[in-house]
Write a structure and sequence with these properties.
The structure is a homodimer. By secondary structure, the first copy, chain A, is an alpha+beta fold. The first copy, chain A, is built from nine helices and eight strands. In chain A, about 35% of the residues are buried.
Chain lengths: ~210, ~210
């Protein structure tokens, strides 16, 4: 939705001088009240202005951009996450690298008895190959980031939170996890999906391509 | 902007039966025309319906989501691109890997005489270290993707196009380039910026965080 030049003038006036009545706004713009009615209706229904009886219009602080934000905030992790690829922590670094190429993923989720134990990135693997290790013998668990230092996300979290974590923690992927409580009371994480910067980029394209 | 239940009903009626007059819509909803006026004004001004004199309302095909798309389509590459990091093609693979860690980037742009010659990804470097090459002797140009196979973007292109290229070409980064014509008529590309999936993820967070 594009605001017209006049609607933007109205928002500016209310921002500066609100609460202000429709009549006062009309005077400032040298227009009659009736001319402004559709604009004021639109701005009020869009949530940009609020009409308070016997007080006048006030600016709610919302803008067109905040309407975009509203749309983004409705999307949940489970709506867009992709299938996770996991490897057991005993797998060799060499086999982990081969899997990374075969599956064409940038980050591997590492499990022990089926529960999340760590993550390993291309960067971790590149470091390992440079370090002169015997990559066909050393298990991947030696070079992974281990729990509880793994950043995770839940299926019901907003996708915005996932994107914020990717940016602020400077990582490429997040395992989507569900908590399972074992018989001994210990809590473990089962990996049910994957959110990456590719997921966010695809979602951005989808939002931008909508006609 | 959220549509109310009644506004959604109106859109549905116009979608099915448009062109249709305000009076006919009111009858269908068992309401009087005046009650619907603010809704019809809002839907028309938001561009979702179009009011044609002596014909009635028609559905434009636009939705709330297409308003989000409009906002996204206004952002240009030059508004959000970051500073590019470039390396000369004669630099060794080993030095390229060290630079990648030092600069903390996932893709390196490779130049010759200051003009774009190729790009090299973490994946390319990981392959090289696995391949048993002497990475301290072999120049990075041996393992890079070379021009004209490098996917690029221009500063004035919409950011949506950049995101589409990242997704469809399955790459992590795009060099932002400007064409320079040499004295001999040859066209070369100068790298002026960088767009990555991180750029898009940051932009997504920014759009989603707007209040």
């Amino acid at each position: 939705m594009e605001l017209t030049k006049r609607q933007e003038q109205i928002v500016e006036i209310v921002k500066q001088e609100g609460p202000i009545t429709g009549r006062q706004i009309a005077e400032k713009l040298s227009l009659i009240r009736a001319t402004l009615r559709p604009d004021l209706t639109l701005l009020t229904m869009a949530g940009i202005l609020e009409a308070r009886p016997r007080v006048g219009y006030i600016f709610t602080g919302k803008t067109i951009n905040s309407l975009v934000a509203q749309r983004i905030n409705k999307i949940k992790v489970k709506d867009v996450c992709s299938f996770p690829f996991v490897l057991d922590e005993q797998v060799s670094i060499y086999d982990a690298i081969v899997s990374m190429f075969m599956e064409d993923v940038g980050t591997l989720f590492i499990t022990k008895n089926g529960y999340l134990e760590g993550v390993v990135s291309r960067k971790d693997l590149l470091k390992a190959t440079m370090g002169g290790m015997d990559v066909s013998k050393v298990p991947v668990m030696v070079v992974m980031t281990k729990m509880p230092n793994v950043v995770t996300i839940n299926p019901d979290d907003p996708i915005l939170l996932a994107a914020q974590k990717l940016v602020s923690r400077e990582i490429d992927a997040l395992p989507v996890v569900e908590v399972k409580t074992l018989a001994n009371g210990e809590e473990k994480l089962r990996v049910t999906g994957r959110i990456t910067k590719t997921t966010i980029t695809k979602l951005f394209v989808e939002l931008g391509e909508t006609r």
